[in-house]
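Hey,
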Amino acid sequence: MNTPNTPNPAAGGTPQPSLMVPPRSFAGPIVLIIIGLVFLALNLGMIGRPTMFRLFADYWPLLIILWGVIKLFEYQRDRNAGFRPRGIGFGGFVLLFFLIMFGLAASGARHVNWNRVSDEIEIDDNVFTIFGERYDFTQNLEQELPANAQLKLNNDRGAITVNPSPDNKLRITVAKQIVAGSRSEAEDINRSMEPEITIVGNVVNVNVKSYRKGSRLNFDVQVPASVPVELLSLRGDLTVLQRQADVKAHASVGDIRLEEIKGNVDVHFRHGDLVAHRIDGDVAVEGRGGETDIADVTGAVELRGTYGGPLHFARIGKELRFKSTRTDLQFAKLDGELTVSNDEMTARQFAGPTRLRTRSYRIRFEEFSGDLGLENANGDVLVRPGRAPVGNITIDNGRGDVELVLPSGANFTLDARSRRGDINSSFDGLKVDSSGRDSSATGTIGSGGAKVNVNTDTGAIDIRKG
């Protein structure tokens, strides 16, 4: 008697595949073993993470090919044994799906220009060392300078620090950080990234031949203090110390620090913080920055652009001008300090004429002289001039209280109005009318002289003696 799983030749039947369950597939376990061995080698230090990532990004399709070869072998084996061939199954499908997704992502990331990506957004360059090992190299350069030399240095990625040299030579130490798959590859990249010094007339140019993904060059420069310098870095900090000549600094992403400069300073930057201290000359800044600190400047200071961090100015010898999409501010001179944060502006010890047009700030101006014109769209305002005589004062506040503190011996003519708020005064001789919805205060104190006009749409006005 024949079993149900055995063909019956006597009956003339055609042999059918067995209904017995075939052996389990070993394709998935083999792939998992290979992945496990790779991670074991990683944990034991036999292979680095960058190398592992690079190998997986390039050769992950071999795992699918291996899987297919194993499944083809199993298919033929099952047919020869009379078993019904098994498909890849749900578990195999899930494993294959994630393998393809991770493989495509790794291959795409391997060929992305991460230098350009990191230029657009603030990402630490160390993140990209997953694409290779980091190797360090050092190179020294030296160059005699022509008469009346000027230095121009371009560095796409990396910091630049400039200090005075003791003689008439240009000395440069370049610290290179190169990301590569092997030492030999890093050495090839190092040779291709050698800085070049060219001289055209009296201009000394320092440039790098080419840059490789994930690499960085940090320049430590020594050049005579009398040589003007112009620095350009797409991504890297710029530092210039103790220079007796003009300085130009351009940085797309990076902090800028300038100290003890006897010359004019010109700064352009897109993202980063700025420190400029002890500048014997004018300072011009333009761009989009973060924290900004400018102090002890004998000349004029002009700041244009958009700045997200707090701004600090101190001891500016000539005109101070700050212009952004939100604020237009001008002082004739700043002997004290000016601080600007996200919602507050505070200044003391400055000279006019002073002009401010802004919005949404709490403003506090104290101990100043000269004329003042102030327009604020939203926020409380406190104005306290220094000793008499006071200059002409005009305050227009869209919404918020106004506090005006004037010296007791000041001579002025007042016209103050609030559309929806009270007016209070400690000066005798002022006529205050707060009987209706609108309030007003007018009058002359002393011999008149300065004209003081205060207006606010919504808020109280307090005029008192200092």
